[in-house]
Amino acid sequence: MPYRRFALLVMVVALVFAGAGVASAAGPRFQEYVALGDSWSADVNILNVTTKYVPFGCVQSARDYPHQVAAALGVPTFRDATCGGAITDNMAGPQSAPLGGTNTPQFDRLTTKTDLVTIGIGGNDVGLVGMVEGCISLLPSLTPVPGATLPSPLGASCQPKFVVGGVDKISQAIAQAAAKIANVIAGVRARSPHAKIEVVNYMNPFPTAGCYPYIQFANEDIPWLRAKVNEMDAMLARVAASKHVGLLNTNTGMTGHDLCQLPTRQYVTAVLPLSSDPLIAVPFHPTQLGANHQAATIVAALGG
């Protein structure tokens, strides 16, 4: 091989390896990650509570999805502001944590250097947990006389509590929460103008059909409950799109992990607080499997 061509080949190979060295030395994609949200972002179970970023009363888990995402992405600076019971008002204002203590405004963790923010909020503004609690029926299949059902919470459908005069109160609350979510996004932008903002939706744990008595809901209520969570997620997607931020869809991969599955497959706990780890979990909240699923979905979407 002529010397000139050989020298050119050596230069090309050197450039390739130099480029690889530059890429590997670039470090993590994100330098400062802040997680904002409620218990569906903070909670896994009550035996993994951490007080590193919030008071104990927030019941924030050291194995929630924000912690896992930060570790998987190798983010140097991470702050998890998520707290059980949080509403959109607690982004800019303090919160009295459910089990005691005060969580300072979640926005306080944001800085001008923050370059990744996840937002998992809105469920408590809408009252999703209250909706579920109001639909618990201990004996929904029993009828004292033909054509009659036991009164709630023993047997009646829960829908008349929430759909009055043809008006669905949950749908109303979801529509009203849209402006609040938009304001949260605007608040993040104002404080962290260079951040990649991602809205995290709610895993829908309801199957297409009920499985009483394995879960304590009237079978006829299950499709309505499923529709309400889908409606909530659709609102979050619309707001995220209108504000030109990302939407992380944690419903991807939920098939076979709904409330009717065994605890070892559930991504969300049912009425009985049995978790898949099998530590004690908060009812109707992500199990450890669910938090792992949330984390894996988010990391994959972020290219981690």
TrEMBL record:
Xref: Pfam families: Lipase_GDSL_2
InterPro entries linked to this entry: SEST-like, SGNH_hydro, SGNH_hydro_sf
SUPFAM superfamilies, per database record: SGNH hydrolase
Residues covered by the SGNH hydrolase-type esterase domain: 35-290
Leader peptide range in chain numbering: 1-25
Transmembrane segments: none
UniProt KW Signal keyword: yes
Keywords: Hydrolase, Signal
CDD domains reported for this sequence: SEST_like
Keyword Hydrolase: yes
Tree of life domain: Bacteria
GO molecular function: hydrolase activity
Protein name per UniProt: SGNH/GDSL hydrolase family protein
Organism: Fodinicola feengrottensis
